């Protein structure tokens, strides 16, 4: 009680992925057991912007650095906070823990906890003791004795009261401690003998115990939602309860000593590979290179990712990796095993989203702002299906900083929809004026060309920039994406932070858009991908917008890969088109006039991209950079692929270390920093504007 003092002061609070960290004024109210925060000290007399009940909360210093800590309330709400230094963090953490303990014990005295489940681990003894020696018929899981209390027959489970949720939280805390003890016991087993720490059954037990704690946290949050609904009335008919992201941090989860780096196997590369001998980027020219589309050839590679063999063979490696990860852990710096990789770079994956260039070019042919917005939504929703290579979820290569990818598509003009929705090689006179004239007077080609370039502009955080244009139709798209991946138990979530802008120069319109989150599910069996989250598309000039929801599979009921959306005129708040269906199957568009259009993605024609041969590519172009990894994966030589991959990663770390020591900033090749985003160095809107200015001056 001597240390129960009210403290206040400024801390940085993590708000969201877009806003990031912001200074807020925090007040610890010991008497009420509350942590409150305000915009600033001057607004302290106003209503708090946020309040956390500290009874039953968990206060955890972060592993990220010496300044950050988290406050996880029993309600499931979490504050991620950052002090100015380690000393100030310790001051806040100690005071918060004292206050939390005081109010948690006060509730516990009035509401004694239920009897906890028994959980005992058989004594290990020495390596020769009977407790460790395993009979041939003995299963590894049976080595552990787990007892459960059953409810008396005929007794009904009472409705959960608010105070009982505190009991549940306490029982879950005990379960977390028991799970930590379980992992310690497994880790302490001998490296050889009948029962080792690498026994497949024990590795499975470690991985599934982590997933079980995640599921329990989800269930706990569902109980809270159920209690809230009972206060406000029952849930409406047809409501589904969805899977939830972890709401309660397993803050004191057992920390494995090798949590930062997980190599696929122990052996180091036998020799220095070609990847390490490539000159450092600072020794290469960083001047932008003009790629001639005539040098590019139609891509004939077809690396479908439908093979489960490597995943099946390496299951023990996956289990060992999962047993060392923590819920919510950022996987950006985690080295994942090679056998789960796709045979392409992430930069090339972004290019594959452009596999329907006919739909992309047709956007600008729309006769009205409404039709152009609807066409963009149609193109947007059809782009994700071809971006996946097969039904098995695998991970593209993490691009090396400075890595680039170039390609193009040729689309016959007769295959592009006109403003009437038909396909024709002729356009109206106003459109003909936008087409480039051959200076030699030769006939123009009967196809449109769409060029694409992508570059990895940052390593930490990993940010990619990509740009595509069709100069003949005066349209281009520029985007930057920061991929944030997190471990979610039996799945991995990837958040695509960033923004893209489509420019229709003929109409003076700009369409801003974002990307959905992606999830790799069932990573221990047959991994598959689903998309989730809400994205928005907006055109400020026309006042049209689109809202699209990618629905993840609900916990109870519902379908896979479902997507819904609507296109709206903001000024009149009128919905002009609705869309529903599956983003990898059939989409249904319903227009305001009652007409309906169906798009079967499985039957859409895919235009193969055109890529320069490897011998003409630069050393930092994706396919040449990763060629040895890709060839080894095609040959099924996982060890050799891992050696080449490690050589590339080690070279990148050495270069990054050298730049840090010499304080040399990284210079990008094709993209320039613009505020919080990245913009292509020579976008079409600049070249067209310059050409128009030059023409005006000459007149």
Automatic annotation (TrEMBL):
InterPro entries: OSBP_sf, Oxysterol-bd, Oxysterol-bd_CS, PH-like_dom_sf, PH_domain. Its main location: membrane. One of its GO terms (cellular component) is Golgi apparatus. Residues 290-301 have a biased composition (Acidic residues). The keyword Transport applies. Residues 117-137, 420-433 have a biased composition (Polar residues). The keyword Cell wall biogenesis/degradation does not apply. SUPFAM superfamilies: Oxysterol-binding protein-like, PH domain-like. Residues 4-101 form the PH domain. It comes from the Eukaryota. It is found in: Endomembrane system; Endosome; Golgi apparatus. Signal peptide: none annotated. One of its GO terms (molecular function) is sterol binding. Keywords: Acetylation, Endosome, Golgi apparatus, Lipid transport, Lipid-binding, Membrane, Transport. Residues 104-137, 276-301, 420-440, 638-658 are annotated as: Disordered. Belongs to the OSBP family. This is Oxysterol-binding protein.
């Amino acid at each position: 009680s001597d240390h129960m003092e009210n403290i206040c002061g400024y801390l940085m609070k993590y708000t969201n992925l877009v806003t990031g960290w912001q200074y807020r004024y925090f007040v610890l109210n010991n008497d009420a057991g509350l942590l409150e925060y305000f915009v600033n000290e001057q607004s302290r007399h106003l209503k708090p912007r946020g309040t956390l009940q500290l009874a039953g909360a968990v206060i955890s210093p972060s592993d990220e650095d010496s300044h950050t800590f988290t406050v996880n309330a029993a309600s499931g709400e979490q504050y991620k906070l950052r002090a100015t230094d380690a000393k100030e963090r310790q001051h806040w953490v100690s005071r918060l823990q004292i206050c939390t303990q005081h109010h948690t014990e006060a509730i516990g005295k009035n509401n004694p906890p239920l009897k906890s489940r028994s959980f005992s681990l058989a004594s290990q003894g020495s390596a020769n003791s009977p407790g460790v020696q395993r009979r041939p018929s003995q299963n590894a899981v049976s080595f552990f004795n787990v007892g459960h209390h059953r409810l008396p027959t005929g007794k009904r489970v009472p409705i959960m009261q608010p105070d009982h949720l505190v009991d549940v939280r306490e029982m879950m805390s005990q379960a977390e401690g028991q799970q930590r003890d379980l992992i310690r016991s497994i880790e302490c087993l001998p490296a050889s003998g009948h029962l080792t720490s690498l026994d497949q059954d024990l590795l499975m037990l470690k991985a599934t115990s982590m997933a079980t704690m995640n599921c329990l946290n989800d269930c706990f949050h569902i109980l809270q939602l159920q209690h809230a609904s009972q206060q406000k009335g029952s849930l409406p008919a047809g409501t589904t309860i969805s899977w939830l992201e972890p709401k309660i941090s397993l803050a004191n989860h057992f920390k494995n000593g090798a949590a930062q780096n997980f190599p696929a196997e122990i052996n180091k590369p036998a020799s220095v590979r070609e990847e390490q001998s490539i000159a450092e980027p600072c020794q290469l020219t960083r001047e932008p290179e003009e790629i001639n589309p005539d040098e590019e050839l139609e891509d004939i590679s077809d690396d479908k990712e439908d093979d489960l063999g490597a995943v099946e063979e390496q299951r023990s490696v996956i289990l060992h990796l999962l047993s060392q990860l923590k819920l919510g852990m950022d996987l950006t710096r985690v080295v994942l095993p090679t056998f789960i990789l796709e045979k392409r770079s992430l930069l090339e994956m972004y290019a594959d989203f452009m596999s329907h260039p006919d739909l992309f070019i047709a956007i600008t042919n729309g006769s009205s702002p409404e039709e152009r917005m609807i066409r963009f939504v149609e193109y947007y929703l059809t782009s994700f299906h071809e971006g996946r290579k097969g039904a098995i979820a695998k991970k593209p290569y993490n691009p090396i900083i400075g890595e680039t990818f170039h390609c193009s598509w040729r689309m016959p003009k007769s295959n592009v929809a006109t403003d009437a929705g038909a396909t024709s090689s002729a356009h109206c006179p106003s459109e003909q004026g936008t087409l480039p004239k051959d200076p030699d007077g030769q006939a123009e080609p009967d196809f449109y060309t769409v060029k694409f370039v992508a570059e990895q502009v940052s390593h930490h955080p990993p940010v990619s920039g990509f740009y595509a244009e069709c100069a003949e139709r005066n349209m281009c798209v520029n985007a930057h994406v920061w991929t944030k991946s997190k471990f979610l138990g039996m799945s991995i979530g990837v958040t695509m932070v960033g923004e893209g802008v489509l420019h229709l120069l003929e109409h003076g319109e700009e369409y801003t858009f974002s990307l959905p989150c992606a999830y790799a599910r069932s990573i221990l069996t047959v991994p598959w991908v689903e998309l989730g989250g809400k994205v928005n598309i907006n055109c400020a000039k026309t006042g049209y917008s689109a809202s699209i929801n990618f629905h993840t599979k609900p916990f109870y009921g519902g379908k896979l890969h479902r997507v819904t959306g609507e296109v709206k005129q903001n000024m009149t708040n009128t919905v002009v088109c609705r869309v529903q269906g599956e983003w990898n199957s059939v989409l249904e568009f319903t227009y305001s006039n009652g007409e309906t259009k169906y798009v079967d993605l499985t039957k859409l024609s895919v235009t193969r991209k055109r890529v320069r041969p490897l011998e003409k590519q630069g050393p930092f172009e994706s396919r040449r950079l990763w060629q040895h990894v890709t060839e080894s994966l095609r040959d099924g030589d996982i060890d050799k692929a891992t050696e080449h991959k490690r050589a590339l990663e080690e070279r990148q770390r050495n270069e990054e270390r050298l730049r840090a020591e010499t304080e040399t900033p990284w210079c990008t090749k094709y993209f320039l920093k613009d505020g919080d985003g990245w913009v292509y160095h020579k976008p079409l809107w600049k070249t067209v504007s310059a050409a128009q200015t030059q023409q005006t001056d000459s007149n």
